[in-house]
Amino acid sequence: MLARVIGGGLAGAEAAYQLAIRGAEVELYEMRPVKQTPVHKGAGIAELVCSNSLKSADVNTAQGTLKEEMRLLGSVVLRAAYESRVPAGGALAVDRELFSAKIEKALSDTGRVTVIRREVTRIDENTIVATGPLTSDKMASEIEKKAGAERLYFFDAAAPIITGDSVNREKAFFAARYGKGDSDYLNCPMNKEEYLRFYDELVNARKVILKDFEKGELFEGCMPIEEMARRGADAIRFGPLRPVGIKGKDGEKYYAVVQLRKEDAYDGLYNLVGFQTNLAFPEQERVFRLIPGLENAEFVRYGVMHRNTYLRSPGFLSADFSVKNAPGVFFAGQITGVEGYMESAASGLIAGINLSERMKGAETHVLPETTTIGSLQRYVAGYAGNFQPMHASFALTPPLETKIKDKSLKKRAYSERALSDLEKYIENNKGVSL
Ligand SMILES: Cc1cc2nc3c(=O)[nH]c(=O)nc-3n(C[C@H](O)[C@H](O)[C@H](O)COP(=O)(O)OP(=O)(O)OC[C@H]3O[C@@H](n4cnc5c(N)ncnc54)[C@H](O)[C@@H]3O)c2cc1C
């Protein structure tokens, strides 16, 4: 049985490993170093393009739960991460060279993975496409042929998304402008002093350096909040932070108002309206937490402005990551609309298991909706709202059956439910391939 995996990044490496340990002969195609992406620096498999942090290792967070789920499923990326760990407090950070070398060795040790260094421009049967946010142009054209041009995004100019739970409701309140229509927006009001402090930090915050190739195309249609702010102290107050039509309970008026819009049906996630940004991730946390009500905001997705090729997957992919009308072709990684190193690897893990199952004529797997991986599988296949790449988050899983007020206990309950449901799922599917 021969399987092909296109792209030797986080998702592709994990997928190739999962296929190989289940008995498939795997050709893993990686175009670097023959052809480089604008962001990767070397030729290593599973190169981390930016930070060396794989985020929290605390099991009582969504990121920690995702890691524990990956451990239960036998992830090679997670194993390599622990074998190359460097001290970073509660985060799982790695020595990036060692991390890549450990994964290459694990692939080679299977005896079934051949790494082929060339750009692939065609998608055949029994293939996983894991070409990432910097998919080569020729492969992007091939994907467009299969999926339709309207399904492929090339740039991402997105505002941060935070959890509803982390918003301080003593300061933020629901209201409709002029009291008309439903009170759909959560409003974070600011007085003059709060606004000026926020403004000052916003215009002076550290930005991500954009590559020249991105600048022109991005900025014409979509202005980052910090650039708009630079036009003058009132520019954003007359723009996305316009306070007009919003009054407090006692009729008080505000100097500026940041509005949060629901991202999902459960009141779980909110985006900061008009806050597409190019600030570095830690700067987004520091500066946006100055907004009253967002002091403890938990970011599930940072704002970004960069090249990011991804599919509008709902309707095109099934929850097992295969193409609906071509079940022998799977997609994995950031290109499916998951976001983050570990989320990409986790989707590669599921796509690898599932292609192996499909080649054997067996049923594919969609993990329980209570798990972080299972909820991402459903997000990718079925999200009905404004589809954008998404991190693992408990807010994507169904609400808990009993209400828990204490936030850390609530997270623990989400985590325990996810891991217990995954353990049961694995137990029930042992005879198959998990
Ligand atoms: C600039 C940038 C910074 C990011 N920073 C972070 C961060 O700090 N933390 C985080 O969690 N996430 C970050 N991400 C998001 C995401 O987690 C990473 O992009 C992650 O590497 C995605 O994994 P992947 O396997 O989908 O893609 P990749 O890891 O990019 O792997 C795809 C591979 O496919 C290869 N390829 C592409 N086209 C072809 C082709 N036609 N034929 C053969 N090979 C091909 C590429 O060379 C690449 O090696 C960042 C993304 C970008 C673009």
Instruction: Give the distance, in angstroms, between the N- and C-terminal Cα atoms.
Output: 19 Å
Q: Bin the strand percentage.
A: 15-25%
DSSP strand count: 17
Order of helices and strands: EHEEHHEEHEEHEEEEHHHEEHEEEEHHH
- Rg, rounded, reads 22 Å
Instruction: Could you tell me the CATH topology label of the largest domain.
Output: FAD/NAD(P)-binding domain
- Main sheet: strand order: 6-2-1-7-17-16
Per DSSP, the total helix count is 12
Task: Write a structural description.
This protein has 434 residues and is of the alpha+beta class. It folds into 2 domains: 2-158 and 307-428, FAD/NAD(P)-binding domain (3-Layer(bba) Sandwich), CATH 3.50.50.60; 161-302, Elongation Factor Tu (Ef-tu), domain 3 (Beta Barrel), CATH 2.40.30. It is 33% helix and 18% strand. It has 12 helices and 17 strands. It has helices at 10-21, 62-72, 76-83, 96-109, 137-147, 192-204, 212-221, 225-229, 281-288, 341-359, 372-382, 407-428; strands spanning 2-6, 25-29, 53-56, 85-86, 91-94, 113-116, 127-129, 152-158, 161-163, 173-175, 185-190, 256-262, 269-272, 299-301, 304-311, 322-323, 326-331. The strands form 4 sheets. It has a 6-stranded mixed beta sheet with strand order 6-2-1-7-17-16, covered by helices on one side. Strand 16 (322-323) and strand 17 form a beta hairpin. Helix 1 packs parallel to helix 10 and helix 3 crosses helix 4. The longest helix has 22 residues, at 407-428. Flavin-adenine dinucleotide binds at residues 6-12, 29-32, 37, 39-40, 49-51, 119-120, 130-136, 139, 306, 308, 333-335, 339-341, 344.
